[in-house]
């Protein structure tokens, strides 16, 4: 039996959902204010962010399965091989002046992904999502929220950059 991956990252942002929704709606656009494009491959889709669009970021590929502007976007994985499932970003109002930004990933790794997820993909995924939440926090509050990558993530990024150059 394959053990599922259930991964959640969230940040409470001190702004109403309408304001955070405007930030959310820039996702995967030329003027993306949410995705941490300064340190990670940009999220891009053929024909823009719309239901049925194929795309992703770097080697991680997925299709837009559901889109509720300024509220929810759900994706189904198509790569890397062995990662079967979905992930989504959602906004949840928390009172009049706060919004929870949440990313969830539910997947079943198969084949080599059973060891690759905990050793490679998972740590990189966690670092990327924390960077995205920190970027959202900075865009909403104007206050930087620098994240510190683990030594393992820094090493993985260095190895992957070297492989991409060769």
Describe the structure.
- There is one protein chain.
- This protein has a seven-stranded antiparallel beta sheet with strand order 1-7-6-5-4-3-2.
- It is built from three helices and seven strands, in the order βαββββββαα.
- The longest helix has 29 residues, at 113-141.
- The chain is α+β, with helices and mostly antiparallel strands and 166 residues long.
Number of β-strand runs: 7
Series of secondary-structure elements, N-terminal to C-terminal: EHEEEEEEHH
Q: Helix/strand-derived class?
A: alpha+beta
Query: Low-confidence stretches at least 5 residues in length (pLDDT < 50)?
Result: none
- If helices are DSSP runs of H or I spanning 4 or more residues, what is the number of helices? 3
Helix share, percent: 25-40%
In which order are the strands of the major sheet placed? 1-7-6-5-4-3-2
Describe the structure using short key phrases.
166 residues; alpha+beta; 7-stranded antiparallel β-sheet; 31% helix; globular
In short:
The protein has 166 residues and is an alpha+beta fold.
How do the helices and strands line up, and which of them pair or pack?
Layout: E1 5-13, H1 17-24, E2 44-45, E3 54-57, E4 60-68, E5 72-79, E6 83-93, E7 99-109, H2 113-141, H3 151-165
Antiparallel strand pairs: 1-7, 2-3, 3-4, 4-5, 5-6, 6-7
Helix pairs in contact: 2-3
């Amino acid at each position: 039996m394959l053990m599922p991956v259930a991964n959640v990252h969230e940040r409470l942002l001190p702004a109403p959902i309408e304001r955070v929704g405007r930030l959310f709606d820039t996702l995967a656009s030329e003027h993306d204010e949410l995705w941490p494009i300064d340190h990670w491959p940009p999220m891009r889709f053929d024909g823009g962010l719309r239901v049925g669009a194929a795309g992703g970021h770097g080697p991680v590929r997925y299709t837009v399965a559901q889109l509720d502007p300024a509220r929810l976007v759900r994706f189904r994985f198509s790569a890397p091989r062995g990662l079967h499932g979905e992930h989504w970003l959602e906004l949840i109002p928390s009172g009049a002046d706060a919004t929870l930004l949440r990313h969830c990933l539910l997947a079943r790794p198969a084949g080599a992904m059973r060891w690759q997820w905990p050793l490679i993909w998972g740590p990189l995924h966690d670092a990327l999502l924390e960077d995205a939440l920190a970027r959202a926090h900075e865009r909403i509050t104007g206050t930087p929220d620098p994240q510190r990558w683990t030594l393992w993530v820094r090493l993985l990024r260095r190895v992957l950059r070297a492989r991409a150059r060769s």
